[in-house]
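quick one: IPE bound model?
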Amino acid sequence: MRQSSIHTAIIMDGNGRWAAQRGLPRLEGHRVGAETLRHIVEVAPRLNIGVLTVYAFSSDNWNRPKEEVDALLFLLACYFEKESVRLRDAGVRTTVIGRRDRLPPALLAAIDLAETRTEHCARLHFRLAVDYSARASILQAAGDDQLRSAFFNDAIPVDLLIRTGGEQRLSDFLLWESAYAELVFTKRMWPDFTPTDLRAAVAEFHRRDRRFGAVPQTFTEVVPESELAASSSERWLR
Ligand code: IPE
Ligand code: IPE
Ligand code: MG
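yep, here:
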């Protein structure tokens, strides 16, 4: 039986440490990290992932040195520009979540290009979180009727949330949507993360027993015929 597709979210962490371990500038980690992302997006539909949301730049990342921020935003613009045709040809609808009013015009144009080029695609919905803060979007929705309905319309519950780089925290990513997400933390730095690692994380997800506050699957199996004859209250009293 084919299982329904899942929403996987990834906190792509560890680029800087990956580079430092090799005596390279942090930027090199981000550059290789962008390559990793390309491979992961390619394999996602084959793992029955219907929505893939990745954390590319958090609103708190503005606090990094200006050179790193500028380089990250530049890399993102290159990614959208370079990848949009490939994404379209692969049937990947690409959209961006997060604030747009603080992004440089070149990045905005590249985002616009990728979103427009891929809007008809339906094989995978790929979402990049850029200048994203879950707390900020929840706060915004709380104070405005229109934003509130947009927030709830766009909120896709996360099934599987992966964080690379060894830290075990959410860093303000998809707080609302991850209410019942299965969490997978790996020590692997993002530039080293492979499609095989993604496959392993998805396999781990399928081994989990998601209860959503109800009783475990094993306690809800079919009641035997003999049991059915007795009324439910009798069954409890026995
Ligand atoms: C993740 O890698 C990329 C971004 C946050 C933009 P980091 O740059 O956080 O790498 P580490 O955590 O310092 O190793
Ligand atoms: C989270 O990683 C943001 C992204 C991966 C884009 P950070 O490296 O910024 O998070 P903290 O500072 O370790 O919590
Ligand atoms: Mg980090």
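Residues 12-17, 57, 61, 72, 165 surround IPE (ligand 1) (CB under 6 Å).
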